[in-house]
Amino acid sequence: ILFEYFIKKLFIRDGQEVFSKFGEALKVPTGAIPRQLQPDILVHREKNTIALFDVKYKHFSKRDGVKREDVFQLHTYVGQYSNHYKIDKCGFIFPTHGKNEVITQEIKVMGQTIPFQILLIGVPDIDRVKEVSKEKRSEIFAQKFKSNCEEFVKQFAK
Description:
The protein is of the alpha/beta class. Helices cover 32% and strands 34% of the residues. The chain contains three helices and eight strands. The two termini are 25 Å apart.
């Protein structure tokens, strides 16, 4: 939850309109009590258009991709939110070592093609830098991570 909150704050500080996940969530029938659908990131893009992302604080496997149950969860979100909004992109946000990366593909939901992205936000690996003091490594980490965060927000806004 902390990583999700951090990502949300990056977008809010950038001036993007992020919907609260605990606001008026959509509900789906279950045969008993309806369940709320609460995607981690819903960003208002333009009139009646949103970007929908789920934040994962786990390793993203470039060989295997996103876990099956996570893909099904995202498809459920996209399918239900498509009844109310135009979705201009969707996907997942993961942390990664090093640099940011964007993997872009497409999904088809309800006859519409939607950009599907894996957004990897790079956490600098400064433990490899041994020739400077611990304090200097902390400064280097802070500078690189700030730069990665700024680049990440710009990539998301596109």
